[in-house]
Amino acid sequence: MSTAPARVLVVEDEPALRSAIGQALAGAGFTVETAADGADFARRLARFRPDAAVLDINLPGENGLRLAQRLKAAGDTPVLFVTARDGVDDRLAGFSAGADDYILKPFVLAELVARVTAVLRRTGRLVSPTIEVGDLVLDEDAATVSRGGTVIDLTATERRVLTYLVHNRGRTMSKTQILTQVWGYDNADPNLVEAYVSILRRKLDVHGPRLIQTVRGIGYRLQA
């Protein structure tokens, strides 16, 4: 099993959503390629062998169901469908085409990332990572965080914010980026991010020096 970043191919015809999904997965540490339709998919596939694929069902030309069948025939690549079609027959068609998971639009990007991660782990294509940043240890598989050997009790949302910062350690992330990646929208009150960063600091900083730095006028950076 390789420790290299897992490769994910995203096929979505809506440009804004395609970009958002790609950025969310890349921010979580995956190597990502994106395509807009079946023809673009074929070109990408010729040089990019994905460990998993995120496919919209309603694509122009060759639809996502057919693309999934091609992936399964070529190498049983795990597939997660994203679609606005929520009928039972639609779901059954997706699973018949080989879907490993299915998520309805609209969705929170953090949930999609979690589902892709879960699919990769179930199929043995992803090493369950334990990430260490100084004395901070994030175990994504066990959903635990510790610092200096002390387990820190975090809510699910607090852990998602911290996980996003850990995956982007050393980089300054804006409040808008954090809102988009963790909550799935960027038009909320940025004070929401400030509140969660404040909570994280309160819980983390009692065990050592401050990890989450404020970059004035831009956002936050977790010290690498």
UniProtKB/TrEMBL annotation:
Q: Name one GO cellular component term.
A: protein-DNA complex
Q: Its GO biological process terms?
A: regulation of DNA-templated transcription
Question: What keywords is this UniProt entry annotated with?
Answer: DNA-binding, Phosphoprotein
Q: Which residues bind DNA?
A: 128-224
4-aspartylphosphate found at: D56
Pfam families, alphabetically?
A: Response_reg, Trans_reg_C
Q: Which domain of life is it from?
A: Bacteria
GO molecular function annotation? phosphorelay response regulator activity; transcription cis-regulatory region binding
* Residue ranges of every copy of the OmpR/PhoB-type domain listed in the record: 128-224
Which residues belong to any copy of the Response regulatory domain? 7-120
Which PANTHER family does this one have? REGULATOR OF RPOS (PTHR48111), TRANSCRIPTIONAL REGULATORY PROTEIN TCRX-RELATED (PTHR48111:SF28)
Q: What is this protein called?
A: DNA-binding response regulator
The protein's organism comes out as: Cryobacterium melibiosiphilum
